[in-house]
Structures are given as C-alpha cells and as structure tokens.
Design goal:
This protein has no helices and 13 strands. It has 140 residues and is mainly beta.
C-alpha cells in the first residue's frame, strides 16, 4: 500500500501494488515510478493508480534530476533514463554482486550498495570506486 503525506502526520492511502522500490519525479509529485516483477510501472496521478510494468525489470530506482533517473537491475547493471522512464540506456555495471540500494545524488554521482560494499560513480556509471566495504562476520 502506497501512502503519502504532506506533513508526516496525516497519511492518504493510494494504490496497492507489489513493488520493491518507488521514485517520485523531481518535477512534481504526481509522477511516481515503481519497480515490479514485470518492469517499471508508472503513475501520473500521485500514486492513485499505476499502469502495467514495462521493461527493463529493475530492483531500485533513484530520480535525482528530471534528466537523471537511474535504475539498477538484479545483476548490477545501472540504467539511465533521460525522459522519465520511457526509454532506458545501460550506463555501466556496479561491482560487488546483487544490489541492495541505490541513490542518485545528481546527474553524474550515484551511490550503490551491493553485497560486498558501497560503490560510487562520479561519471554517470562509467567507473566505480568502492567507498565502504561490507565485512562478513566470522562467527567467532
């Protein structure tokens, strides 16, 4: 159940959908995208209703600027859309295994958490630098 609030105190219920992540357009709260098992689903009414999912199938989304919508798939491929999710282009591949989280800071700077650490790109996905390793507990 998608819920929205203007003040953090009262909440309106919107659409119910099986989504892993959502992203709201930086141009306005009426455009909401959600990652579903069928692909990226779009709402143009603030999350009241969503259309069918469209490829690619992405795990996480982050929408920093109107022309900088990023998504990451299960294999760590980073995709970028400059037109609000209508079309996508592969921007690079995040190392470290299955993605856990994604944050686009701006047009070129993106942070991605994977199974073995947090990676950063400052060139829109061309290169990645490990910023924080994830250490596995040895169980001792």
């Amino acid at each position: 159940m998608l819920r929205v609030s203007k003040d953090g105190k009262s909440w309106d219920e919107r659409a119910e959908l099986a989504a892993l992540d959502i992203a709201v357009s930086p141009k306005g709260p009426d455009t909401v995208l959600a990652t579903t098992e069928d692909g990226v689903a779009k709402s143009t009414d603030g999350g009241e209703t969503f259309g069918a999912g469209a490829k690619p199938v992405l795990y996480f989304l982050s929408w920093a600027e109107s022309d900088a919508l990023y998504g990451i798939d299960q294999a760590g491929a980073l995709h970028r859309s400059t037109d609000g999710g209508k079309t996508w282009k592969k921007a690079g591949t995040v190392p470290g295994g299955q993605p856990q989280a994604l944050t686009a800071v701006d047009t070129n700077r993106i942070l991605a958490a994977t199974q073995d650490g947090v990676y950063e790109t400052r060139d829109g996905g061309k290169t990645f630098t490990k910023r924080l390793p994830v250490t596995q507990s040895s169980g001792h």
